[in-house]
Amino acid sequence: MYIGFQGDMKEIKSFMRDYIATRAVKDNKSEKRKIIYNKLWQLLIELQFAADELWSNATEEGITGFISIYKEVFKEIKKEKYNLKSDHKRKLVELLHQFELYHDGKSLVVNVKRNFPIDKYDKNIGEIPVKKVLGPIIENNRKIRDQYLKLLSEISDHFDDILLEF
Fold this sequence. Notes:
2 strands, single chain, mainly alpha, two-stranded antiparallel ribbon, Four Helix Bundle (Hemerythrin (Met), subunit A)
């Protein structure tokens, strides 16, 4: 009977060692995932701030800054592809698409303003109705902005599950 008890203790100790080792690997993976999601979230917020700046004032410098951050976000998503949950990847790709559309719309605004200043007057064609041209572009940008803000909110909720887990 005593020998059986020692055998059981060896099994229990072996089980405990395996359990602790497995738990350590899972904890390490969870910590790594939190770091990845945190970095990605910080980049997304930077991108949102750059987009907000473009909303307030569409300039070539603003577009350049926006594109720079966009590329960082895109690179990070590609780099961490296998560390992101698949539903999160889908939302992020959808978000990047909305930001691309927003960039295109803001670039168009900058180009129209650059090529047709609001105070420009041409003797041959009269006043150029730049405000009429910009109105629909700005309205479309507003819709895109609403969509990317909605997606950011959804992504925030998903990321909270990762970043706030205990």
